[in-house]
Amino acid sequence: MQRIIPILLFSFLTLVSCHKDNDDTITQVNATFNFTHNWDGASVSNVNFNTIQYTNANGEQLSITKLRYLISKITFQKTNGEKITLDGYNLIDVTNNSNLSFTPTSTIPTGEYSKVTFTFGFNNDDNYNGNYTDLNSASWNVPAMLGGGYHYMQFEGKFIDNTATETGYAYHAIRAVDNSKTPQEFKDTFFEVDLGAITITNNAAFNIKMNIAEWFKNPNTWNLNTLNSMLMPNFNAQVMMFENGQNVFNLESVTQ
């Protein structure tokens, strides 16, 4: 009996120790997403706005006067396929140098993730007028005649057209709609950005780059002389924006 008691005590302490170790590995941390902007590698911020100094893939010289866009549905996918989607969305406003960094209120557990993604714009479940008072006050709404919901991006500036005249452009991304058909025909043009696999060990900062020049060049070489305004009701133009957007974002680094 005297020999059994020490053995039982040792077993109990071992179980307690193992339980404590397992608990220690389940740690909740924050993820922050920082966005920077460049034109084929040259840094861009609002101090570079309002001056014609960039040349797109079609050879047109242009300026940037406004750039803001929406990201949502930040998702961490575990190696077993389980997904953790963080609450919230972020309207990044380069024009006013605001919301360039976003830390969702939800935390994530440390561990291995097969990929981290975010959505450019809103998916169809989230894209409804009236849901977001802050976006309403930011004049982010899409008119009802174009399907309602919200913009994905507002990108504006001026360019030198083929008559050597300084002309405005408004490169606004929304869900593609064809008003020539009854009922209206829609095509999804939000897209998911895959930041790749990562092992999270601590609070993590994802440093993401947007190459603004990519909106004009791949796979569609954008001709501002023919596609500079009234692009929201232009079904084909919206699809082209969607296609060009696939190469715009890249993960620069992750710090932990």
From TrEMBL:
Pfam families: MbnP. InterPro entries: MbnP-like_dom. Residues 31-228 form the Copper-binding protein MbnP-like domain. It comes from the Bacteria. This is Copper-binding protein MbnP-like domain-containing protein. It comes from Jejuia spongiicola.
